[in-house]
Amino acid sequence: MLLNDLIVSLNHIIWGWPLLLYILIIAIAATLFFNFIQFREFFNAWGLMLFPDSSVEKGDMTPFQAFLNALSSAVGNGSIAGIATAIYAGGPGAAFWVFAFGLLSMALRFAEVFLSNYFPAITGAHSTIGGPMIYLQKAPGGKFLSFAFAFFLLFLGFTSGSAMQANSIRLGFTRTFGISPLVTAFILLAFIAYVVAGGAKRIVKVSDAIVPVKVGLFFVTALIILFYHWQSLLPAFKLIFAGALYPHAIAGGATGFMIQHAMRYGIARSVNATEAGLGTAGVLFGGTGSNQPIKNGIMSMLSVFISMNIVFMIALIIIASGVWNNGETSLDLTISAYETVFGSFGRCVVTFLALTFGVGVMVSYSYIARSCWLFLTSGNFETIFKILFCSVVFLGAIADVDVVWNATDLVNGGLLIINLFGIAWFLPLIRQKLQESKQ
Fold first, then answer.
1. Distance between CA 387 and CA 376 in Å, rounded?
2. What's the CA gap between 154 and 310, in Å, rounded?
3. Alpha-carbon dihedral of residues 337, 339, 341, 345, nearest 10 degrees?
């Protein structure tokens, strides 16, 4: 309990104005340096995503498969439960900052994917390792930064990418169907052991099958709920904007403090929901071995846009259904919103969403964490990694991981500080290459 309280206190310190301004300044700088690329190339990004070049496969996966995995790693139970927690703690205004920062952070996603394909990946016998671990080595303090980044991201893969997802799935199945935590833990263990045993190719193949299911199911159920509550949509938008810009009108208290609270939770959940700036997409696209940094960077921005809209839609569902201030938080708040339309069946729908979201994240993060492990160990001890990753999934399904949930924001803060420094250092280079591509 003391450790958990300490982590929560550190989160409040780290995610204060200095870090918020650091993130916003670099995101705005990237947007300006790239001449608002997220808006200029928006339709081009859709074309690249809908009509991918599947013949490009020099590494572990194609760029389109990297796109799917980047989307899958972001759309997890942090999306379902995370935004509900943000609204509970920061009010409806947190949803505004999720969307606003999501638009800005599309430029960050372009930058990290560009750099991951611009600097050649490390190609081994059974893997292709790229991403921030490579391009950070070219920045001041590079060797230390690259190893620190890989260590933090490996930790995130073991916690947020596996233990937390398994824990959310177990909670959902225990509460909804009364299934024993041990049964859920063994099923998840068997599944993830099968996936990681097959190496990078099997991970990518399984992820390809999961992503369309979980994203499609979410959008269908979310649109049904929003259509049912269509008369409450305009008041919901008013609450979101009022909560972001005039929070005292809703929650009382000092305006500056409440805006910081909404921004803090909104931006933190936006980072969790899109992972833009964290470097995870860079690891995935780095694993393609592709030499088309601009093209892949443009396509990759859509993964931020889609995951951002998923989280914003969950927020809109919670607010429009009128349950946002009922005293519940996390997954229970999302379930309450679904129950306004689906009744008691709403819990089953959210539980199945938690299953598909969580499994998708575990599969994608098994590749991301594997890349970090191989980088840190110079390509050795992969069997030990597989055993550790599977063990964490099993333990996460049966243990109390409140401390891990709270530690995620702490680790995300560290990853952002390191990776955004690298992106900021290379902004002139990226701008130069963009200008040369137009000549």
1. 17
2. 26
3. 140
Question: Which CATH code for domain 2-437?
Answer: 1.20.1740.10
Beta bridge partner(s), residue 129: 122
Q: Which long-range contacts (CB under 8 A, 24 or more apart) does 43-48 make?
A: 44/298, 45/298, 45/299, 45/301, 45/302, 45/305, 46/302, 48/295, 48/298, 48/299
Is 81:331 a contact under the CB 8 Å cutoff? yes
> What whole-number distance in Å separates Cα of residue 185 and Cα of residue 169?
9
- Tens-digit pLDDT profile for the chain (439 aa)? 576 677 777 777 777 778 888 988 999 999 999 999 999 999 999 999 988 876 655 778 888 889 989 888 888 777 777 777 777 777 787 788 888 888 999 999 999 999 999 998 888 767 788 899 999 999 998 889 999 999 999 999 998 888 888 888 888 888 888 888 899 999 999 999 999 888 888 888 888 888 888 888 889 999 999 999 999 899 999 888 887 776 544 444 444 445 566 666 677 777 777 888 899 999 999 988 888 999 999 999 999 999 989 888 998 999 998 888 777 777 778 888 899 999 888 888 888 888 888 888 899 999 999 999 999 998 888 899 999 999 999 988 887 766 666 777 788 888 999 999 999 999 999 999 999 888 6
Number of neighbouring beta carbons within 10 Å of residue 142: 15
**Long-range CB contacts for residues 5-11, cutoff 8 Å, separation at least 24:** 7/403, 7/406, 7/407, 7/410, 8/406, 10/410, 11/406, 11/409, 11/410, 11/413
CA angle in degrees (0–180, nearest 5) for 300-304-307: 130
DSSP calls for 277-313:
TTSHHHHHHHTTT-S-HHHHHHHHHHHHHHHHHHHHH
Global pTM value: 0.90
For the chain, the domains span 2-437
